[in-house]
Specification:
Radius of gyration: 25 Å
Mean pLDDT: 92
Number of strands: 10
Order of helices and strands: HEHEHEHHHHHHHEEHHEEEEE
Distance between the termini: 90 Å
Low-confidence stretches: 1-18
Strand order of the largest sheet: 3-2-1-9-10
Largest sheet: 5 strands, mixed
Shape: globular
Number of domains: 2
CATH topology of the largest domain: Purple Acid Phosphatase, chain A, domain 2
CATH class of the largest domain: Alpha Beta
Strand content: 5-15%
CATH superfamily of the largest domain: Metallo-dependent phosphatases
Number of helices: 12
Length: 351
């Protein structure tokens, strides 16, 4: 008979002393780093200060999501060194519960489409190997007739030896390897095409240049597919998404409006009037269902800047020694957003 009361007793105890509610997980930590432009020492200092890599360059960020905002390439000599580490971290971070996202910046697209105006000479040397000089000679000899024809079309009196010297100067050791690596068939090119141009992490939207109202009709996935397709095609047309001044790689209109600058032209709103920066930011926030937008691309030598009550964060702080700005990173934990500054390490000779 007493056993009949055992079950009701448990029910009563459970009702009087309910189990504690499960603890809410800590907010995810996001670390975002702006344009690096070939400065590995600056990148290493930032990554270590942010706790995402250890002294040996290995992932130490645990469950952190690291977002590098694009423009690793150009202006400095160590772009390849940074890219190789980001590639490794993208593989290693998930083993510890973390994630590494490397955005496509306009300088990545420039390198893939043959716009090499800002390539530091050290970048070419980084791609050279023991066969580079002989390989360059072979390429010249195999294309000698076409090269001479092209030069003489511009300089009819140019002699054969002068043409060879000019071509060798135009193609320093390592440049051929650099161009192949950055092609759609090369390992760097494939890596860039696999990276997103825009990504939503939690309630934050990350994009290298900016998100124009003109692109709010597309989802991040659609934008990223279009960017990858344009990179694969090495599309150099001005209207391509990777070249469009209003596109995600180039747009500065969330930061400034400059007369004559196509990348800052105010879009026209539903009323038929140009949108203000504040109105456009509000439109982007609503379209992508986020609380803030994080952009790079437009450098500020004074550090990270926030605007419009924290809905826009500009984190291109001119990190590279080519600009000699501030070494910074942005940290987002839940609703708390913090800009951090890191001491610049002692300068080393650049290659």
């Amino acid at each position: 008979m007493p056993r009949l009361w055992i079950w009701p007793l448990f029910v009563l105890v459970a009702a009087l002393f309910p189990a504690a509610a499960p603890a809410k997980p800590d907010p995810a930590r996001i670390v975002a780093v702006g344009d690096l432009h070939g400065d590995y020492d600056a990148w290493e200092a930032i990554a270590r200060a942010a706790g995402v890599v250890d002294a040996r360059g290995r992932w130490s960020g645990g469950s952190v999501t690291l977002v590098q905002m694009g423009d690793v390439a150009d202006r400095g000599p160590d772009s390849l060194k940074i890219i190789r580490q980001l590639m490794k971290l993208q593989k290693d971070a998930p083993k510890r519960g973390g994630k590494v996202i490397a955005l496509v910046g306009n300088h990545e697209a420039m390198n893939m489409t043959g716009d090499l105006r800002y390539v530091h000479p050290g970048e070419y040397r980084a791609f050279a190997d023991q066969d580079s000089e002989a390989r360059r000679d072979r390429v010249y000899e195999a294309n000698k007739a076409a090269i001479e024809t092209a030069y003489k079309a511009r300089y009819p009196q140019m002699k054969t030896d002068a043409i060879r010297d000019a071509w060798m100067k135009e193609y320093p050791v390592g440049k051929l390897e650099h161009q192949f690596a950055w092609s759609p068939s090369g390992d760097v090119g494939k890596w860039v095409m696999a990276n997103p141009a825009v990504v939503k992490v939690g309630d934050s939207l990350f994009v290298h240049g900016g998100m124009s109202a003109a692109y709010t009709q597309f989802s991040p996935e659609q934008i990223n597919q279009r960017v990858a397709g344009a990179l694969k095609a090495q599309d150099q047309t001005p209207t391509s998404i990777i070249n469009d001044p209003a596109g995600p790689l180039w747009y500065r209109g969330l930061v400034t409006r400059e007369p004559g600058d196509e990348a800052t032209v105010a879009p026209v709103g539903p009323s038929g009037q140009p949108l203000s920066i504040e109105q456009e930011i509000a439109l982007v926030l609503e379209a992508f269902h986020v609380q803030r937008i994080v952009v790079a691309h437009t450098p500020s030598t004074t550090g990270i800047i926030t605007a419009d009550k924290g809905t826009l964060w500009r984190i291109d702080s001119a990190i590279s020694r080519a600009y000699n700005g501030k070494l910074t990173y942005l940290e987002i934990i839940g609703d708390k957003v913090t800009a951090h500054e890191v001491p610049r390490p002692p300068a080393k000779p650049w290659g």
